[in-house]
Design a protein that fits this description.
The complex is a heterotrimer of chains A (184), B (392) and C (388).
Chain A (H helix, E strand, L loop, with lengths): L16 H6 L17 H12 L3 E5 L6 E2 L15 E5 L3 E11 L5 E13 L13 E5 L5 H5 L7 E6 L12 E6 L6
Antiparallel strand pairs in A: 1-2, 1-3, 4-5, 4-7, 5-6, 7-8
Chain B lengths: L10 E8 L10 H16 L8 E5 L3 H4 L4 H5 L10 E5 L4 H14 L5 E9 L27 H16 L3 H14 L14 H6 L2 E4 L1 E2 L8 E10 H7 L4 E10 L13 H14 L4 H4 L2 E3 L5 H10 L8 H6 L16 H4 L4 H16 L14 E8 L4 E8 L1
Parallel strand pairs in B: 2-3, 2-4, 9-10
Antiparallel strand pairs in B: 1-7, 1-8, 4-7, 5-6, 8-11, 10-11
Chain C lengths: L3 E12 L7 H16 L9 E5 L2 H4 L9 H4 L6 E4 L3 H13 L5 E8 L7 H7 L16 H14 L3 H14 L14 H6 L2 E3 L2 E2 L8 E9 L4 H4 L4 E10 L15 H14 L4 H4 L2 E3 L5 H10 L8 H6 L16 H5 L6 H13 L13 E7 L6 E8 L4
Parallel strand pairs in C: 2-3, 2-4, 9-10
Antiparallel strand pairs in C: 1-7, 1-8, 4-7, 5-6, 8-11, 10-11
Chain lengths: 184, 392, 388
């Protein structure tokens, strides 16, 4: 029984940032891989809907779940989905956070509030584990509301970009904002 | 799946090794894999010649900046003219590696297996977090410019809301794990800190501060796994793989409840059933739940059914999960304390349970007698649960 | 004794482009066909799901995230093997042999048409410290080096490679899954500009989008589901060395395929593959590899593959048919799904469902695939048909 405990003398040579930069032959490489992702049947139709200011879902003929974002198949029943439905777009905030950092971890000038929106959609029991929903930005709410928890459960609706600026992207919705008088 | 407690062959872990976990290491990924593999072989008293098959694990290829990362690592991990394969479930990879190694041996295909997990996050520029920009759905999520910490923060926020936990309750996990890591010779982020230190550290994405998160790390870990007959020849104290489980939930993480990780529970049930464990909260003596973030340890303790949903944060306060507590969790110091070279971190947790069950953890050895331990990792878009149950 | 049985197959493509579907929809199509073929419900009958894919091919870091939904693996044991589909199949076989899993689904897909910079991804596969900085003009250089070494060792010349390329493409005309099939003469190939000497563009297979899904079961359960099970008698895979030590590769040979074959043959109890099997589907993402494969698999004596090929021994009605499907040269390289495409063609032959290119005698087969440059990893499977 080793008294000092395993692992004994784990190998490895720590480098400080400056040490690394002083290493001979340090290689810098910037990959430039690019892709053209085919959105496919289901998402193409969804993105087209966004351009027209509509949030579309698709229904599983077996279990009745309405999927937003739509998929061509039901992941729980493994059958093709068929019936398209237009949703009102309203929903409630499932969770929300205040971000002070950007994708590359640099500090943001102005913090951004993002969250998950549980959309009003048929096919789910209230408070079911699964739901139709989107990940998006929230506007018209304050960091304090996120921190004190009052934002969770808040009724929200999409704020659309003007039609001429929409491109058929998830960003055609600028953000989700509170429904007037809809706060609980 | 059939309930089958008597699989074809029993399989044991007979050696473990690891490198230092550090923010930036001189060694290349292949060298790290080799160092860890060599340590594990030494501990088992074997040479590479004695190894039949290799299973490797490493998470996003983009960290190393190498396509076919498994092929790149192969020779470093000892994969020279042998069956070599790489398994992959994002952050859950570290525990998936010994699970796959288990079936290499349990099926009779290989007598001895070297399981190696490596991660070198530091080469990614400008910051390793940028690599995570590419884990998101390219059409629906990437256009919003997300940061990885967002999803964790959203999950933590939901857990706090559902379970009534406060930031200071959750910070206790970070305090505990960083303290535990003070006794770990490979640890990168061991520290004596207080809840206030966590709350006052840099605010990244509310409710997540800098000290709620494990660090960016380089490192590698390796295990030697063998079938029963061989294992008994190698050592008097083999640690048996008694249960394995893994589950992947759907990709659409924003289409489900975030307060409870049902996929971890499914994976745990699979592993417990194989191990013949009916009451994990009583039968498990020591646990290494995956803790890249402090709330995650609580989340996973609940998913592993070691505490009831929403109760783990209360038990932390009572010292229930301390090294001298009723059910010690992350006695190694976890990812928060030892470091988080993604795939290697998961395998480090398995190595810790191995050492605990052999009473070789030195100052980290938990107070109570140990018979069964569980290690777990988690990954992908809050979807993957991988669980392994070990017994001595 | 069989180790496992393939009770269902499904596929989408292979085709050079598939803009109509996302990669997930492509996998769903293939999976639905495979489950219908096997008569199983993936949500109830399948115990585990394996996906074979690589991050950079997908353009997604941690592409495993997208594995479960289209194959029906949500909330089930699902994981990814970052390797060729045949390696994933080997995992499925091992899982079944532990006694813990009865039915495992194996999936692999490729959508090279979604990749705008395929060459750059091949560059990324080279060692970043001592090969990438050399900036090889073509990251597939390994294939030409192997070809040169093979010619030097065996005395074969470019005309042998051209013969393979022409023959495979013509064979593909009988295969509805062969988008790159066509009539091309040997002279046309020899007169065309080399891409990397000695290989012309005809010698190198094109890329194709595809998805293949297999349903693999415990052998004693197979007949419960299908009247045409195809049994896996042996499966082996091996890596010669890491891509970081590509210099150590034995040029002009494929030692990994030899090791994999020996493992698979010993499991299947095969001494002489030529006499105990009826045909093979082998590696041919560049024409010389077909000849090399024949030697590594023990289907041709050392250094003789090109001569036997020239004599027509491997034709449809030859002594031992090889790649009746037209191989990758006719069907395209579907990244990690390439090995499963070879396997799919062999399964259809063994079930007597190959259509216009059905062999009259197809009871036992060898399937062999390499992961492609710059890897030195291969996998080999021995299959037997329902009537065997």
């Amino acid at each position: 029984m080793a008294s000092e405990g395993k692992p004994v003398n784990p190998p490895g040579t720590y480098l400080k940032r400056q040490d690394l930069e002083r290493l001979p032959g340090l290689i810098r490489y910037k990959p430039s891989v690019k892709y053209l992702f085919a959105a496919g049947e289901a998402l193409s139709r969804f993105l087209k809907g966004l351009k027209e200011g509509k949030i579309l879902g698709v229904k599983c003929p077996v279990c009745g779940r309405v999927y937003v974002p739509p998929r061509a198949y039901c992941e729980y029943c493994h059958v093709p989905t068929s019936e398209w439905v237009e949703l009102p777009g309203t929903g409630v905030v499932h969770t929300a956070v205040v971000s002070y950092i950007a994708t590359d971890r640099s500090r943001m000038e102005k913090p951004e509030i993002v969250g998950v929106i549980r959309l009003d959609a048929p096919g789910y029991r209230e408070d079911s584990y699964e739901f139709a929903g989107l990940f998006h930005k929230l506007c018209g709410v304050t960091p304090e509301q996120v921190m004190d928890g009052s934002v969770i459960g808040m009724k929200v609706k999409p704020r659309w970009k003007p039609p001429e600026e929409r491109t058929g992207s998830i960003t055609d919705i600028e953000c989700f904002e509170p429904v007037e008088g809809g706060e609980q | 799946m059939r309930v089958n407690l008597h699989v074809k062959d029993r399989v044991a872990i007979v050696g473990a090794g690891m490198t230092l976990f550090r923010r930036r290491l001189l060694e290349t990924p292949r060298e790290l894999a080799w160092e860890a593999a060599r340590q594990a072989l030494n501990e088992a008293g074997l040479t590479l010649r004695d190894i039949d098959c290799i299973v490797t694990g490493t998470a996003p290829d983009a960290f190393d900046g190498v396509h076919f990362n498994g092929e790149y690592l192969a020779d470093g991990a000892g994969g020279f003219g042998k069956p070599v394969s790489r398994v992959y479930v994002g952050g859950g990879t570290g525990v998936m590696v010994p699970i796959a190694a288990w079936w290499h041996a349990a099926s009779g295909h290989c007598d001895t297996v070297l399981a190696v997990a490596e991660e070198k996050m530091s080469p990614a520029m400008p910051h390793p977090q940028y690599v995570f920009a590419y884990i998101w759905d390219p059409i629906l999520e990437r256009p919003l410019g997300p940061n990885l910490i967002w999803i964790f923060a959203m999950e933590m926020r939901r857990y706090m809301y559902k379970c009534g936990a406060k930031k200071e309750d959750i910070a206790l996990v970070s305090v505990k794990n960083k303290r535990n890591a003070l006794d770990h010779p490979a640890a990168q982020a061991a520290a004596k800190i207080t809840v206030e230190d966590v709350l006052n550290s840099e605010l990244l994405v509310w409710p997540v501060n800098r000290l709620d998160i494990s660090p960016v790390s380089d490192g590698a870990v390796a295990l030697v796994i063998a079938r029963e007959k061989t294992a008994r020849r190698i050592t008097d104290s083999p640690v048996w793989v008694e249960g394995v489980g893994f589950t992947l939930d759907n990709t659409h993480w924003y289409n489900r409840e975030l307060a409870y990780p049902r996929y971890v529970q499914y994976a745990a049930r699979m592993a417990y059933r194989m191990a013949g464990i009916e009451r994990p909260w009583k039968e498990i003596d020591v646990a290494e739940p995956y803790d890249p973030f402090d709330y995650k340890e609580l989340h996973h303790i609940e998913g592993l059914m070691l505490a009831r949903p929403c109760e783990a944060w209360k038990l932390v306060k009572e010292g229930y999960f301390d090294r001298d507590g009723e059910l010690p969790t992350s006695p190694s110091g976890g990812l928060l304390g030892v470091g988080n070279p993604i795939a290697a971190a998961g395998l480090m947790k398995v190595a810790e349970i191995f050492w605990q069950l052999r009473y070789e953890a030195g100052k980290r050895q938990v107070k109570k007698p140990v018979h069964k331990g569980v290690a777990q990792a988690w990954g992908d878009l809050m979807q993957a649960g991988t669980v392994i149950v070990l017994g001595n | 004794m069989a180790k496992a049985a393939i009770i269902g197959v499904g596929w989408y493509g292979p085709r050079p482009t598939t803009p109509e579907v996302s990669f997930r929809e492509m996998v769903f199509e293939a999976a639905s066909r495979a489950y219908a073929d096997a008569g199983v419900d993936p949500r109830k009958d399948v115990d585990a799901f394996i996906s074979a894919q690589e991050d950079f091919w997908e353009g997604i870091a941690i592409a495993d995230e997208f594995a479960p939904e289209p194959v029906g693996g949500v909330l089930r044991p699902t994981f990814t093997v970052a390797g060729d589909g045949l390696q994933a199949l080997a995992h499925a076989v091992m899982m079944i042999e532990t006694g813990m899993f009865d039915i495992v689904a194996v999936e692999s897909h490729a959508k090279p048409s979604d990749i705008a910079t395929l060459g750059e991804i091949y560059d990324l596969a080279l060692d970043p410290l001592h090969i990438r900085p050399v900036k090889p003009a073509n990251p597939l250089f390994m294939m030409a080096l192997d070809a040169q070494a093979y010619m030097l060792r065996t005395g074969a010349d470019a005309s042998h490679f051209a013969l393979v390329s022409a023959e495979e493409r013509v064979r593909g005309l009988n295969n509805p899954r062969a988008s790159f099939a066509g009539k091309v003469s040997i002279d046309e190939i020899l007169d065309s500009e080399p891409v990397m000497d000695p290989l012309t563009r005809y010698d190198i297979a094109g890329f194709a989008d595809a998805s293949v899904v297999l349903v693999v079961a415990r052998p004693d359960l197979a007949e419960k589901y299908t009247s045409k099970p195809v049994y896996i008698e042996g499966v082996g895979f091996a890596t010669e060395t890491g891509t970081g030590t590509l210099e150590w590769h034995t040029w002009g040979r494929m030692p990994s395929m030899r090791i994999a074959a020996l493992r698979a043959y010993s499991q299947a109890g095969i001494g002489d593959p030529l006499s105990s099997t009826d045909f093979a589907e082998v590696e041919d993402r560049a024409s010389p590899y077909l000849l090399m494969s024949l030697e590594e698999l023990g289907l041709a004596p050392e250094g003789e593959a090109h001569k036997l090929y020239e004599r027509g021994e491997y034709e449809y009605d030859g002594y031992y048919p090889v790649n009746p499907s037209g191989g990758s040269l006719a069907m395209g390289v579907a990244l990690e799904a390439t090995g499963l495409l070879r396997l799919l063609e062999a399964v259809l032959q063994l079930r007597g469902e190959a259509g216009a290119h059905q062999l009259s005698d197809a009871e036992r087969a060898i399937v062999a695939s390499w992961r492609g440059p710059p890897t030195t990893t291969s996998a080999v499977v021995v299959l037997s048909g329902p009537s065997c």
